[in-house]
Amino acid sequence: MSSKENPFGQVLVALVTPFDSAGEVDWEATERHIDRCISNGADGIVVTGTTGETSTLTDPEKLKLVSLAKSVSGGRAKIITGGGSNETAHAIELYRASEKLGADGVMIVTPYYNKPTQAGLLTHFRLVADATDLPVILYDIPGRTGVPIAYETIIRLAKHPNILAVKDAKGDFSQVSRVLNQTDLLYFSGDDANVLPHLSIGAAGLIGVTANLVAEPYRVIVDAVNRGDLHTAQQMHRKLEPLVRAVMTHVPGTVSAKYILHGLGRISSPRVRLPLVGPEEWEAAAIEADLDLVKDLPGIDFSNFRPDRNAAAGGALPKIAGTTR
């Protein structure tokens, strides 16, 4: 495992952004949700990431989320700002503004849609990291961006003093092992189903979608791994499996997490912004069938789960449509 100090926490929630039924940010629900996540074991909150629907948030919304999360945290958890932009100049602008608002770190996603070369990725990450004094997490998620961060590129980026970590949603465990062997980078599991496997080879923690619903089991797994108790970690991993499947396999994780949170009465609406839409009837049924298999999971109780498929249907347009600036 890396000898570098971890400034991000170990159990990080990839936070959903609660909306009201019209598709506008529900700030009161967001405040409550952040507080609950921290109270239930999260020591880091990633706002405006993929799960937070960063691509359909406006810049003022993104920055307000940083400010709100920092206020709610009150020092109990690190606040990491994600998302960024596929335009280097725009990403720099957002991260600088987030730093002024008190963010504790930034997570830079691989530029999407542009399909840059590895040389382009190297330049993008370096310039953004140069623009802030905050610690940086590289976000490697080729399934969404179309471009992986190559092993050689990660090795070169590891020499930048501000780049301290990688969020891995690529699932290449041999590459993770090689990088951990050759650098001081911290690794965070970015795939809920692979949290324990990642931790077992030296990852520092996780940035999870399912943790929006319940952070406590992840706290148990991480703490067990920290003390070398693999048996306890395996038991909790197995108990989590049907919930992870419910959240991560039928529809985008944002959609299912909001559907379930609303059914538990924790957020006012399951609404997502277009082009995302709520689960169709058969998708909702599949989510609920997996939830029926969740047993004895600490921190969550589905006995009063009341899903609303009608409320979740479709998607919303924000009042300011057509640009996230």
Describe the protein's architecture and organization:
This protein is an alpha/beta fold. The chain contains 13 helices and 8 strands. Strands 1-2-3-4-5-6-7-8 form an 8-stranded parallel beta barrel, surrounded by 5 helices. Helix 1 packs across helix 2, helix 9 runs antiparallel to helix 10 and helix 10 runs antiparallel to helix 12. The longest helix is centred in the last third of the chain and has 19 residues. The chain is globular.
Q: What share of the residues lie within helices?
A: 40-55%
Low-confidence stretches: none
Structural class: alpha/beta
Q: What global shape is seen?
A: globular
Helix count equals 13
Strand content: 5-15%
Give, in order, the helices and strands.
EHEHEHEHEHHEHEHEHHHHH
Distance between the termini: 39 Å
Report the major sheet: 8 strands, parallel, barrel
Number of DSSP E strands: 8
